[in-house]
Write a structure and sequence with these properties.
ATP-binding; transmembrane; transferase; EC 2.7.1.107; 4 helices; mainly alpha; Helix Hairpins; DAGK
Length: about 120
């Protein structure tokens, strides 16, 4: 097991893989780009709002979760597409479940933003 990478080298490699994944999501996934732009705008807005730290964490965290779910969904789609182009019920189910995860995250983000903005501006 002398070839096993550990410590700081492993963390450095993992960071490189993560950046490569984010770059791939940006280059190949239109939905990720759209959601990332919205997330950036929402994060900037969250810092300009007169809200407490917990509200700001909820506002930012909810849009961040959308990006996390979209990245996972894209990974699922890439693996399914790699397996083969033929239609299969399990392949469709995997893609639909990934899409559902993104939709649920978007609903959560909308709920958080509407609730906190309502509380802030009423």
């Amino acid at each position: 097991m002398a070839n096993q990478i550990s410590g700081l080298k492993r963390i450095y490699n993992a960071m490189g893989y993560s950046l490569k994944g984010l770059s791939a999501a940006w280059r190949h996934e239109a939905a990720f780009r759209q959601e990332a732009v919205i997330a950036i705008l929402a994060i900037v807005l969250a810092y300009y709002l007169e809200s407490d730290a917990i509200s700001r964490i909820l506002l930012i965290g909810s849009v961040w979760l959308v990006l996390v779910m979209e990245t996972i969904n894209s990974a699922i789609e890439a693996v399914v597409d790699r397996i083969g182009p033929e239609l299969h019920p399990l392949s469709g189910r995997a893609k639909d479940l990934g899409s559902a995860a993104v939709a649920l995250a978007i609903i959560l983000a909308a709920w958080v933003w509407i609730t906190l903005l309502w509380r802030l501006f009423r």
